[in-house]
Structure formats: C-alpha cells, structure tokens
Design goal:
Blueprint (H helix, E strand, L loop, with lengths): L1 H5 L5 E4 L9 E4 L5 H8 L4 E4 L9 H18 L5 E5 L11 H17 L3 E5 L2 E3 L7 H9 L2 E4 L5 E2 L1 E3 H11 L6 E4 L10 H11 L5 E4 L2 H16 L8 H8 L2 E2 L17 H14 L5
Parallel strand pairs: 1-2, 3-4, 4-5, 5-10, 6-9, 7-11, 8-12
Amino acid sequence: MRRLADAGWRVRALTRRPADDLPAERVTGDLADEAGLARLCEGAEVLFHVAGLVKARRAGAFAAVNHAGALRAAEAARGAGRVVLVSSLTARAPHLSAYAASKHAAETALAEALGPRLTVVRPPAIYGPGDRELLPVFQAARTSPFLPLFDPAARVAMIHVEDAAAQIAAAADVPGGGVWALSDARPDGYAWRELMTTAAAAVGRRPRLVRAPAGVVRLLGLWGDLLALGGGNPMLRSGKARELLHWDWAISPQEQAAGLPAARYTLAAGFDHTIAWYRTARWLK
C-alpha cells in the first residue's frame, strides 16, 4: 500500500481491525463480507488481492480464504479495469500441500472469471521487516549450535518484502495479464547451504550445518499435524514439510515478466536489514 501511495495512487484497503498507520482509506470488513467488498471495489481501477492464509489447523480453512475468498473479491471487482492476484510460487505444485492447492485453485477460478483482466504474481519465499515466518530461522541461527540443511541439490528463490511490493505494484502495468513469478536478482535461487550460512552471518554466528534427513523432516511434519488436532497451529505440518523437501523452487526465464523493477536487495543485504528491524522491534536480541 505504501508503494502504491508513494506512486500517486489513491489507495483503499479492506481491513478487519483499525490500522492507524495505513496510507489508505480504510473499509472495514473481510473476505466474507460482500457489502464490504462492494465498498472496497466501488470505482476502483485496479484491485490488488494480497490477502491470504499461510497456516491453519485444518485444510478447509486454506480453501475458504485463499480460494473462495479470492473469488468473492474478484466478483466484487468486476467493474474494475484490472485485478492483480498475489498468489504463491507453491501454486506450481498444488499436490504438495493444502496451502499450495488453495493458491492454485484461486488462480484457476479467477482466470475463468476475469480472463485477460487478471494478472497473477507468484512470489517465492518473502522475508523482511515484520515477517514472522522466517523469524525462527534467525532465532536458531543466533542460539543453536547447528542449523539444518535440506536437499543439497534443491534451489530456493527468495525476495525481500520491499522488492516484492515494488514488483507487485508494477504488475498492474504488465500488458495482457498472465502468470508471473517474482524474485530477487537470483531467480535461479539459492542452495540451502548458502541460505543458512547467510542467515547465520547476519546474526554474527557460524553454527555447524547438519544435513536434515528427509524422514526426520516428514516426522516433524506429522508431529505438527498431531499438535493441530490438539488445538495448536504450528507452521511445520506435513504439507509444509513437503514444501521444504521439494527440490525446485527456482524460477525459469519463461516465468518472469518483462518490465518489473529490478530487486534492490541482495540476500546478504536483505537479511542484514531484516535483522536490524527485528532487533529494533525487540523480536530478536
């Protein structure tokens, strides 16, 4: 939203809770609120759909928010010129998890409903200030004597949140719609060793890197499933374990849209920026 506001757009945002720091006109509601969605989209030129559920106790919750919720938003935006759906790179592999399946289903449903008015962007792993999902990695890098390594042949694309925001904002100007992946300057991705080494360097540590057997990762995912049955909501579930063990999260040239702004952050600079924010926010010592 800040990127759009800085570019001169008049921004309107659907919010469930008050947020005084948003540079936008606020519309109270959620993805189940048809009246709120109608107010949000009234007179809009472009709808950016960025809402999404990344963890849930039950698979049906992903479908309810990421698929059905996105479709309701698209239906409310039929009068808008364009719709930009922020999906996920995991939508390439919907068999891996309920999350990935819900993102793929949303892409399919919105493409049928909107045709060439739809642009889909697929971010890879996003990190940066305010992100809680990669925070445990940096916490482990700061305190643990070792860090896990997954498949040594795997490649993982990454992007800093500010670069992701800039590319998402620019996606509305990509002609003809389409499905496009976002990335930093390394669309071919990073090996797990480089990711973990860079994360450790950002917190001033050099822990030992230890290969994590796939069976152990799957077992931890099953343990997360059991915790969810007991009322918890752990990030590492069976689906997330399969995503971690997937070997190909690199981005091919055919998946990249011409004209999106180049990423400003290298992985090292982005991790340093993230750690500085965590420490200022007292999320990390």
